[in-house]
# Entry
Amino acid sequence: MDKVVQSAVEAVADIPDGATLAVGGFGLCGIPSVLIHALLDSGAQDLEVVSNNCGVDDWGLGLLLQAGRIRRIIASYVGENKEFARQYLAGELEVELTPQGTLAERLRAGGSGIAAFYTRTGVGTLVANGGLPWRYSPDGSVLVSSPPKPVETFSVRGVPSEFVREEAITADFALVRALRGDRLGNLVFHASARNFNPLCAAAGAVTIAEVEELVPVGSLDPDAIHLPGIFVDRVVALSPEQAADKRIERRTVS
# Structure
């Protein structure tokens, strides 16, 4: 099945208000920036986003945030976005902070059809006990807090330990970016861009991939494919200019 669509605008046209999105990338590495721009132009709002972070103030998911399109986000790191902090502390944005490894596993579980799993991460903290502030009131008081999660004891290597139960994450749509892809949706990611992208893609009911290079079917070595096309519904081939338009999150000089 040929999954290529003609433009990012066409690819995101049916994403409705209130949709849940799983968005790949880590910092600004491997983010689907062209699809995010198209979604911004589409006018979709009241979105719930699952992503490792929320971009920066003027790039990536930060653009949707600036426009007031995101209602809620599940993320693990949000320290590079001042507007994010402002909206969260002002009670305009609901935030479910999740340990990074737990977030990755929740997405992986969702894509694998696993309802929940147990992990030691978070035991004895607010992650397990509840009380993390998800949403503030404008006066600074906590309006919505995280609920407590089930904790059980299991014996691992003969040592009883407590584990917290974490539920899987799935999304209505997933937006990802790959280095190469073919018309069947098989994807190859470049280096550290192979971070949350495959996990988000598998967790989405409808997965849209922007690819920097569209290659003929059969030209990708099967052993080199990072994400099989069965997980991908739409492919957008980027122009050379779009593929080269990337940001560096932090510049360091010696």
Summary: The mean pLDDT is 96. The radius of gyration is 19 Å. Helices lie at 8-11, 33-42, 61-66, 82-89, 100-112, 126-129, 197-203, 240-244.
